[in-house]
């Protein structure tokens, strides 16, 4: 395993001159020129980029950008390109087909099993999308409706989301690893009466029965008096014959025919291949206002209930397209692979919209990175000659455990740009990515951004930015970062504080679905005039930004943002739990893991059975990825005199650090000694 010896971890890594030669941005000076223009003359900068897109009606002059970021001056709002009408689906599909790129491969689809693969062109996708858009229309779906999607990583997922975009319905995609509770909660919040799912999916050797989970979610909705009218089901694992009726054809026949029993509810459930069969492959897009919503996507909120982050049409498209092109230095012959699931924002922006807006050819992978063995990623890279790879630090750390051999088994000579997202990348993982995976030849783009930002906000540009391992380096075009202190005062030079953004960029979220007040209070109230990221940040003597992690009650497990409140409320639902407090705890591969303190009700016994039940409870309430790593028996919790749990102290106890700092506000400090004594035995070694 590469070790981050001081020198290697702290030196500057310059882009490879070979890469620089053909890059869109070839030097840090060129970056600065473009950046300055994006900040000082945003209209000139973004209008030029927007020229490549199709507007049914052009933007009204003088209405390029209107916004208010200051809650004290009235409601917060952001409006770009007012007066323009467009359609995002048209821009990512029809535009390319009309430009003669119909036969270009949009996705090489790689199944869970290495011999299960297919490909789909832009032209084929357009036909599939039109057909499914017609199906949705026939079932009454119209502009503004929210359509829930709970699917594996298959081309039908892209077809479903773009079909929504075509007719102006908002897709609300729920990651296929979420439980039925989470799915139903999101469907209830968005009032999504249409659900699109699949029978199931294999991830590695694990079967996820999506249809069964969907059925449970529909039942849970019913209990809350909400009726899900239609469930469209893609037969993905079912018989080859039935699947080949869909748009994706040949390779399905190779997939083993799993006998997955799928309950079918007459009148409510419909097979995708049945409804697609007779549908027309022509469908006029619905022309939408630039500021109409495109989709919503839930992300964890520090008060416990997830927030439906709403993105707009034109601003999001522009930002997804531009960040994709520049942060990855994408060129038309590149083969690009993003390992993220479309169920997360990374998949929305960098599997679907960003690459497709650029007419890119991508790999879409449905499987698990360690299946059938730990060199699967490199086998895929060589199979398709992947030149740009986008993944998460947690995967790099997992692969590091197996050493260099599985990586070196494949040539990876096609790789040019490596990128990461989701959490700060530790220097060891950065160096492994750079030296071992990239053979010290590739640039690394450490992209810092959020569900809310729509696309990258801090990132190196592969041909321009000298890299420092672990730093997301500099702002992307249009992003004006500042580091502020507790009082909201901007800090100068070398500093550490809260990362905020001073002015809107096209991809910023426009509201929280159904709750604009929550939008304002979460992102704009603490520091009026700024968008608050919720992340801590350092700026060094060279002006590089270093994200230090969340400063609210949120944490990042394997790059998935979770809130402590969300986990606590699912633990408290257990009949033996009186109180619970969850904190983040460093984990060697996941980055952070959940460490939960639980106070039992009188007379209850803390034992292995209860620990298992509690982990199971979180798995079923939220999803398997959220299950706490450690459950700690806490007869009492450290609290302030006003009753607030002191999570700062709990984080110290979790890592066995007795240096608690200032505890003068703690109501009863004796609980701390008990908690140190009660540390789970597996952690005491
Ligand atoms: O804490 C930051 C971390 O992930 C959070 C956003 O999570 P989510 O909305 O789920 O989106 C993840 C994918 C964009 C941020 O507030 N984060 C994301 N990327 C990085 C990061 N932290 C450090 N470095 C990054 N590159």
Automatic annotation (TrEMBL):
Domain of life: Eukaryota
Occurrences of domain Acetyl-coenzyme A synthetase N-terminal (ranges): 31-92
Residue intervals of the AMP-binding enzyme C-terminal domain: 566-644
Annotated source species: Strongylocentrotus purpuratus
InterPro entries: Ac_CoA_lig, ACAS_N, AMP-bd_C, AMP-bd_C_sf, AMP-binding_CS, AMP-dep_synth/lig_dom, ANL_N_sf
EC number: 6.2.1.1
Entry annotated with the keyword Coiled coil: no
Pfam families per record: ACAS_N (PF16177), AMP-binding (PF00501), AMP-binding_C (PF13193)
Source organism phylogeny: Eukaryota, Metazoa, Echinodermata, Eleutherozoa, Echinozoa
Protein family: Belongs to the ATP-dependent AMP-binding enzyme family.
A Gene Ontology molecular function term of the record: acetate-CoA ligase activity
Keywords: ATP-binding, Ligase, Nucleotide-binding
GO biological process, one term: acetyl-CoA biosynthetic process from acetate
Designated name of the protein: Acetyl-coenzyme A synthetase
UniProt catalytic activity: acetate + ATP + CoA = acetyl-CoA + AMP + diphosphate
CDD domains listed in its UniProt record: ACS
Residue span(s) of domain AMP-dependent synthetase/ligase: 100-511
């Amino acid at each position: 395993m590469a070790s981050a010896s001081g020198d290697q971890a702290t030196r500057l890594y310059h882009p490879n001159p070979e890469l620089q030669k053909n890059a869109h941005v070839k030097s840090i000076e060129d970056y600065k020129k473009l950046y300055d223009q994006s900040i000082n003359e945003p209209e000139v900068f973004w209008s030029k980029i927007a020229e490549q897109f199709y507007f049914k009606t052009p933007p009204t002059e003088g209405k390029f950008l209107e916004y208010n970021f200051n809650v004290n001056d009235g409601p917060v709002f952001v409006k770009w390109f007012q007066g323009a009408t467009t359609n995002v689906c048209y821009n990512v599909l029809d535009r390319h087909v009309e430009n003669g790129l119909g036969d270009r491969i949009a996705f090489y689809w790689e199944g869970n099993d290495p011999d299960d693969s297919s490909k789909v062109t832009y032209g084929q996708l357009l036909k599939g999308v039109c057909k499914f858009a017609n199906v949705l229309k026939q079932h009454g779906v119209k502009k503004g409706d929210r359509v829930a999607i709970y699917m594996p990583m298959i081309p039908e997922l892209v077809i479903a989301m773009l079909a929504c975009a075509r007719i102006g319905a908002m897709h609300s995609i729920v990651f296929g690893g979420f439980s039925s509770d989470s799915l139903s909660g999101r469907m209830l919040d968005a009032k999504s009466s249409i659900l699109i799912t699949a029978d199931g999916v294999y991830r590695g050797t694990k079967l996820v029965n999506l249809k069964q989970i969907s059925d449970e979610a529909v039942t849970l909705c019913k209990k809350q008096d909400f009726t899900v009218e239609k469930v469209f089901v893609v037969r993905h694992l079912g018989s080859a014959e039935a699947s080949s009726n869909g748009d994706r054809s040949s390779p399905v026949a190779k997939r083993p025919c799993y006998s997955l029993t799928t309950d079918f509810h007459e009148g409510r459930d419909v097979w995708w291949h049945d409804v697609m069969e007779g549908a027309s492959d022509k469908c006029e897009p619905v022309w939408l206002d630039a500021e109409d919503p495109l989709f919503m996507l839930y992300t964890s909120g520090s008060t416990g209930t997830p927030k439906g982050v709403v993105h707009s049409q034109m601003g999001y498209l522009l930002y997804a397209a531009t960040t994709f092109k520049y942060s990855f230095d994408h060129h038309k012959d590149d083969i690009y692979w993003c390992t993220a699931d479309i169920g997360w924002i990374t998949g929305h922006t960098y599997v679907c919209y960003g690459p497709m807006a650029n007419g890119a050819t991508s790999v879409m992978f449905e499987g698990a990175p360690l299946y059938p063995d730990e060199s699967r990623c490199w086998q895929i890279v060589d199979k398709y000659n992947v030149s740009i790879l986008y993944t998460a630090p947690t995967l790099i750390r997992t692969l590091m455990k197996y050493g260099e051999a599985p990586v070196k088994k494949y040539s990876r000579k096609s790789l040019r740009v490596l990128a990461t997202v989701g959490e700060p990348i530790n220097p060891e993982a950065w160096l492994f990515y750079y030296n071992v995976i990239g053979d010290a030849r590739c640039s690394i783009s450490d992209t810092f951004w959020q569900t809310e930002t729509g696309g990258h906000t801090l990132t190196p540009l592969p041909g321009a930015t000298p890299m420092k391992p672990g730093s997301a380096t500099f702002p992307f075009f249009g992003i004006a970062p500042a580091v502020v202190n507790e009082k909201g005062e901007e800090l100068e030079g070398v500093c550490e504080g809260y990362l905020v953004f001073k002015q809107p960029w096209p991809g910023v979220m426009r509201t929280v679905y159904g709750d604009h007040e929550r939008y304002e209070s979460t992102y704009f109230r603490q520091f009026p005039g700024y968008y608050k990221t919720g992340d801590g940040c350092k700026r060094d003597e060279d002006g590089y930004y270093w994200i230090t992690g969340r400063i609210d009650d949120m944490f990042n497990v394997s790059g998935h943002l979770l809130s402590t409140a969300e986990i606590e409320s699912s633990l408290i639902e257990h009949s033996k739990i009186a109180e619970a407090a969850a904190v983040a705890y460093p984990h060697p591969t996941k980055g952070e893991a959940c460490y939960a303190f639980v106070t039992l009700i009188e007379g209850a016994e803390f034992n292995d059975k209860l620990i298992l039940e509690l982990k199971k409870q979180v798995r079923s309430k939220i999803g398997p990825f959220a299950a706490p790593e450690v459950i700690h028996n806490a007869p009492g919790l450290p609290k302030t005199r006003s009753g607030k749990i002191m999570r700062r102290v709990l984080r110290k106890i979790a890592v066995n650090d007795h240096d608690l700092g200032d505890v003068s506000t703690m109501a009863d400090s004796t609980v701390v000694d008990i908690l140190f004594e009660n540390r789970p035995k597996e952690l005491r070694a």
